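Summary of Year 1 activities. Much of the first year was spent building the evaluation harness for sequence design. The harness presents a backbone, in tokenized form, and records the residue chosen at every position. We chose the following record to illustrate the format because it has been used consistently in internal testing since the harness was completed.
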């Protein structure tokens, strides 16, 4: 948009009530006045609201249809019965000016922040925005003292001279705070902001005690950085210097939140300023931080992590009572902690029965470059107002130091005006504030929290500041930003500026220096800098993780259920109440399940799942299942939500049988997620990280799509325990199977999970029967082991009768890590077995069919259902049954460089008998997970199955 184009005019021209839409809206309103029922519900609600607005004469007269009146005047004009008296030119001009004043007010509310004094470095000139100038509307100096109506403002006057009005608008919208909020469609929110800002013209009035406290927080922020800079020269800490007002903002946020009833705050942030938050906000003992710099801190984890990734929790005192603070552990992958924090908050809300987030507050701290650049920001924002993921609004704080590593030119760093523009997608207001005005920063934080608590929506505080040092303390930023760092070098620091300001107000010439000396003394002594930190407080909502620590994957768990309980539960979950009319296909599914429950027919996969869920919620374990289309299931096998075919409203008419298992059951929640992998999986990991007693499942639409969330898998699920000591029982269901559906609908990338498996960090399974999925899901909760469970779930097996199970396998038994040979006739001839085929997944059924065709009764087929941790004991026991077997073959659907082969071959070799040979039968190595040509898929499948029975060739490993 050029300088000569009106920003406000462009905005106004695009609103839905103006422009080309106006005749349509007028016609609809005319129809409404004649017959309110003739217009759509949404428009009727809008027009109904208009009827409560006073008429222009101040009366409460109701509007009437306009068309008859217009036609009557037109007819009288034709007959000469009506004379039109023209207004004087003076009246017309005054009317134009009154309209122009309203446009001027709207312009400041819309784009006034473009003229706000926001940059401490003052790197750019104020842009030319004509609509913020009185002359743009035809006003001259002669109009400055003309009084106009200002009753639609909150400046406290019904009318104001033009000069006074412009000054008030500039003070409100163009000072140290620039607020964006006019894009909100909710009129109440817009008026809320106007009242809060215009009443005091965006200038807080803090007393001396409050000002001293702000200076104290600035001193703490600066003091810690300077102490570390001199004591640990050159060590990375990602300094906050230049953005010290952020610590004052965090202090204000916590203290005010406490007064509003918030009892828990969960914070997610990257490395910039993290050490400062640990010490000066959460109250970590400085001596403990120094021990990490000195490498004398305890090293109790298998891997550990750097100090600026560490989490922490504490309880602090506020005027409203104790508040529990949690800083989430996070990796260097910027912004990926955001959905994890949101999930953790949702778990805490659910535990407290706090659906609107009145007691739990998520706070996310961002860098400007990452906020504009990382896609997980958009994905996480998209969750904000959805039923399954809402957390009652998040307070976002951007430490906007105007540079991302070495990139500071806005022509390179983003394609938007502000780094925060992405939040406009959910109409979140943004408060841009000058970091060199700490009082404005604190005030903006107050407003942000008040808005969040009032409207349960996200809100952003964009603290525009600078980065005094390089990206890290070993960097030389002047190499790429010479002009910026010349300005920064001359900057005295926010603390010094504010201390000088308070000195001029008579609060003491040495106040700032005295505070700095006191803080330095506390650092030297390694003492607390946050007072008071509560050391003996424990909330009744705190989770006791001790029962889940130090457990082994071999620990037993009773996963079978009594026959009577099976029948009771199966009847409950297959009964559809009167008044709910299911689709005929769904009715058939439920009729079949009822028969399965009675034992009339074998149990299929969908029923096995449902019975696992039903038995868990009946035993007090909540179940949370989310993912794309998981209510029905991508492959229409689940149908956990029954949709009434006769419902009359779009938002009613669903029935969830698993929510009606018993009177005091635990919750069953199933969520059709937004079309996102990364944010949704991050959210569910965060939920599971705060609730070990809930079975938390994320199901991919296809397992292939899990790679869209690879950062979450790599940085949290696989390594969170060895890095941070955080145990987590999240379950991933990843549909996996080679059925000719092409490269993106065949593989859940089993090999990636196998590569990530070490230190007994997670469980990777590939169950092949209905009873196996039943037992493995129950095992995840009834055992006290909390490790991520990765399930390669099937597609074709969902309806394969060979994959069904008899009822007896649910009322006794357990999850089998290795399923032995199932053909009793072959198994009885153990001494005649020449070959053992080991496999995992649906290829087993292809191998059984081929063996029958070949009548190869000297071959046994073993299924490895748990690939990691590898079940050495169970697998070795099966091999020992066949001492005369000379060949062991691993057969898989996946290409040789994928699947489990490269990871299980040494496990198999370890358990082989001397002299036995190990070979491979499967697809050749491939850059693509699968082929897209149907005939080629079939050829490959036939070849790998045939190869399992053929002479060993290629790579052969002899024991």
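For this record, the design step produced the sequence shown next.
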């Amino acid at each position: 948009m050029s300088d000569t184009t009106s920003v406000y005019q462009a905005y106004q021209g695009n609103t839905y009530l103006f422009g080309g839409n106006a005749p349509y809206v007028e016609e609809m309103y005319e129809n409404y006045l004649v017959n309110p029922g003739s217009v759509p519900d949404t428009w009727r609600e809008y027009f109904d609201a208009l009827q409560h607005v006073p008429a222009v004469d101040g009366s409460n007269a109701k509007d009437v249809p306009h068309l008859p009146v217009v036609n009557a005047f037109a007819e009288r004009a034709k007959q000469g019965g009506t004379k039109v008296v023209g207004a004087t030119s003076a009246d017309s001009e005054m009317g134009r000016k009154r309209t122009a004043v309203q446009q001027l007010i709207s312009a400041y509310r819309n784009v006034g922040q473009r003229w706000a004094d926001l940059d401490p470095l003052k790197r750019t000139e104020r842009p030319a925005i004509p609509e913020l100038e009185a002359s743009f509307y035809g006003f001259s100096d002669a109009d400055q003292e003309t009084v106009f109506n200002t009753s639609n403002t909150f400046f406290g006057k019904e009318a104001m001279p033009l000069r006074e009005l412009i000054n008030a608008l500039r003070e409100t919208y163009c000072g140290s705070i620039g607020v964006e909020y006019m894009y909100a469609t909710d009129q109440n929110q817009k008026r809320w902001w106007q009242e809060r800002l215009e009443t005091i013209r965006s200038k807080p009035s803090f007393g001396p005690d409050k000002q001293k406290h702000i200076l104290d927080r600035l001193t703490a922020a600066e003091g810690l950085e300077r102490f570390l800079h001199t004591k640990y020269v050159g060590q990375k800490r990602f300094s906050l210097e230049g953005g010290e007002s952020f610590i004052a903002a965090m202090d204000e946020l916590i203290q005010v939140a406490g007064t509003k009833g918030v009892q828990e705050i969960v914070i997610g942030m990257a490395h910039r300023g993290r050490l400062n938050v640990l010490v000066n906000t959460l109250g970590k003992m400085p001596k403990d931080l120094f021990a990490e710099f000195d490498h004398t801190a305890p090293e109790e984890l298998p891997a550990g992590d750097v100090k600026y990734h560490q989490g922490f929790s504490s309880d602090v005192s506020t005027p409203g009572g104790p508040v529990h603070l949690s800083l989430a552990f996070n990796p260097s992958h910027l912004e990926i902690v955001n959905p994890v924090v949101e999930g953790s908050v949702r778990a805490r809300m659910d535990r407290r029965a706090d659906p609107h987030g009145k007691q739990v507050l998520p706070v996310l701290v961002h860098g400007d470059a990452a906020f504009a650049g990382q896609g997980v920001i958009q994905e996480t924002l998209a969750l904000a107002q959805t039923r399954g993921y809402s957390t009652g609004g998040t307070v976002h704080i951007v430490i906007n130091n105007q540079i991302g590593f070495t990139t500071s030119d806005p022509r390179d760093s983003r394609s938007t005006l502000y780094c925060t523009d992405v939040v406009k997608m959910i109409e979140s207001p943004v408060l841009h504030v000058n970091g060199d005005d700490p009082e404005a920063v604190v005030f903006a934080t107050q407003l942000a929290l008040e808005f969040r608590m009032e409207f349960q929506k996200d809100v952003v505080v964009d603290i525009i500041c600078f980065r005094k040092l390089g990206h890290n303390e070993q960097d030389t930023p002047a190499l790429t930003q010479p002009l910026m760092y010349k300005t920064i070098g001359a900057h005295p620091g926010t603390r010094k500026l504010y201390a000088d300001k308070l000195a001029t107000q008579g609060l003491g010439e040495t106040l700032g220096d005295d505070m700095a000396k006191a803080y330095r003394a506390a650092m030297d002594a390694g003492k607390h800098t946050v007072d008071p930190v509560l050391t003996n407080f424990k909330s009744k909502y705190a989770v006791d993780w001790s029962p889940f620590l130090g457990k082994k994957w071999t620990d037993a768990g009773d996963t079978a259920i009594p026959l009577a309980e099976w029948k009771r539960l199966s009847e409950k979950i297959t009964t559809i109440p009167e008044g709910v009319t299911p689709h005929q296909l769904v009715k058939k599914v439920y009729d079949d399940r009822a028969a399965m429950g009675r034992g009339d027919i074998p149990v299929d996969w969908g029923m096995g799942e449902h019975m696992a869920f039903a038995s868990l919620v009946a035993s007090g374990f909540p179940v949370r299942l989310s993912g794309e289309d998981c209510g029905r299931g991508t492959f229409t096998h689940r149908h956990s939500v029954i949709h009434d075919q006769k419902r009359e409203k779009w938002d009613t008419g669903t029935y969830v049988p698993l929510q009606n298992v018993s009177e005091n059951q635990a919750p069953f929640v199933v969520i059709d997620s937004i079309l996102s992998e990364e944010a949704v999986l991050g959210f569910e990991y965060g939920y599971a990280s705060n609730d070990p007693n809930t079975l938390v499942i994320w199901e991919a639409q296809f397992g292939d799509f899990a790679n869209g969330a690879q950062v979450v898998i790599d940085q949290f699920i696989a390594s969170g325990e060895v890095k941070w000591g955080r145990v987590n029982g999240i379950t991933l269901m990843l549909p996996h199977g080679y059925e000719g559906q092409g490269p993106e609908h065949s593989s859940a990338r089993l090999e990636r999970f196998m590569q990530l498996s070490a230190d007994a960090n997670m469980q990777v399974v590939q169950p092949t029967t209905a009873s196996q999925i039943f037992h493995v899901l129950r095992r995840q909760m009834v055992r006290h082991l909390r490790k991520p469970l990765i399930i390669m779930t099937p597609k074709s097996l969902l309806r394969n009768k060979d994959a069904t199970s008899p009822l007896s396998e649910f009322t006794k038994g357990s999850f089998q890590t290795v399923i032995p040979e199932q053909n009793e006739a072959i198994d009885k001839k153990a001494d005649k077995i020449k070959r053992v085929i080991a496999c995992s997944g649906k290829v087993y059924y292809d191998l059984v069919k081929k063996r029958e065709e070949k009548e190869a009764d000297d071959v046994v087929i073993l299924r490895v259902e748990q690939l990691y941790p590898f079940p050495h004991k169970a697998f070795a026991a099966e091999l020992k049954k066949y001492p005369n077997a000379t060949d062991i073959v691993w057969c898989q659907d996946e290409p040789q460089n994928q699947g489990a082969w490269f990871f299980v071959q040494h496990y198999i070799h370890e358990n082989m008998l001397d002299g036995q040979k190990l070979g491979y039968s499967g697809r050749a190595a491939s850059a693509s997970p699968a082929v897209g040509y149907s005939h080629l898929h079939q050829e490959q499948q036939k070849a790998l199955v045939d190869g399992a029975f053929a002479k060993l060739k290629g790579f052969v490993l002899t024991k």
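The chain has 33 helices and 26 strands. Quantitative recovery figures across the full test set are reported in Table 2.
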